[in-house]
Amino acid sequence: MGHAVTATRFAVVLLGAALLLVACDDDASPETAPTSAAATSTSTSTSTATAGAEATPTEPPAATSTPAASGTATPTVEAREPAMEAYPVPSGSRPHDVAPAADGGVWYTAQGSGELGYLDPDSGETRHIPLGAGSAPHGVVVGPDGAPWITDGGLNAIVRVDPQSELVQTWPLPASAAGANLNTAAFDASGRLWFTGQSGFHGVLDQATGEIEAFASPRGRGPYGIATTPDGAVYYVSLAGSYLGRIDLETGDVEEIDPPTAGAGLRRVWADSQGRLWVAEWNAGQVGVYDPSIGEWREWPLPGEAPQAYAVYVDDRDDVWLTDFGGNSIVRFDPETEAFEEFPLPSTPGNVRHLLGRPGELWGAESAADQLVVIRY
Fold first, then answer.
1. Helices and strands (DSSP H and E) totals, the chain
2. Looking at domain 93-168, which of 2.40.10.500, 2.60.120.380, 3.40.30.10, 3.30.1330.40 is its CATH number?
3. Average predicted confidence (pLDDT) for the chain
4. Contact present, 131 and 139 (Cβ < 8 Å)
5. How do residues 68-121 score in pLDDT, each as one tens digit?
6. What is the domain partition of the chain in residue ranges?
7. How far apart are CA 40 and CA 24, in angstroms?
8. Closest alpha carbon to 236 in 283, 197, 264
9. Which of 51, 105, 175, 185 has its Cβ near the most Cβ atoms within 10 Å?
10. pTM, rounded to two decimals
11. What is the mean pLDDT of residues 258-275?
């Protein structure tokens, strides 16, 4: 069973365009430092943060409803000035990935302690569920069953935790994928869980049968972020291999799709409501988009002198959010205007490695500071 830890909330208010905090950070990745690449010119607006202030929403405009990526209508959400709030989690947790829960809470992988964490944003309280000896969880996603599913690099296994009983179920990878260094997972339209392993693997778990398969990925090591499009296609990106891969869901074969910038280092990927794939280009410090319907790419450099694009997430309005290790910030990109807006993180460094959200909220984890952050917009 998990244990509860009361955490003191503090809010960070974004007060408008003023100061960009630039703080370079060493990353554990062996990839090279970002380099400048030609791309479409952009405009930038910057929001600053004031630590310790209560989040004060402005008077919201009339609410609107936005179609979700699946084609269904999302709940109506009041528009507001974006405000960031931080929630401490137990010391030593090193939270890595996050996944908003159906009940309004947030699941997170506590990579440092080998546990799955849960945050109640209303009270600020957390509880941790041990995943087993040797656990080092990386990714977490909420499945169609409402349960958190975890890619655990330490256990070299897929893990499911029952949200009510906290029962932990484990599916070890086959011996052929020993040391896969599991990264991220995504469900396809039939409920199968596809996953990546940075050592050079991608695979699938059929939870109905319990069968798990692993495939050797093209170009060896590097498979990282993975996402499902509205039409059910599954794509992953390779950091070391620097390509976008479309998985054949019947055979496990991969179609390799190269970005315009050679060696860009594709780290995370997310699909918008039109089925376009947005990618974070770590080495190049860019955000890129691939449109499968026309087979074309576009890329834009993030603002700042030495950006490092790590995580990417597309919200319910098709705005694109990224984390920038070079600028120690979260960045919002508007595909319509091609403009960036920056939100400095409350900690230096923050090291937010993953983003996920629900209508009106964007969640991430400051792995270097043992706290979760949310931007409510």
1. 0, 31
2. 2.40.10.500
3. 84
4. no
5. 333 333 444 556 689 999 999 999 999 999 999 999 999 999 999 999 999 999
6. 93-168
7. 24
8. 197
9. 185
10. 0.81
11. 98
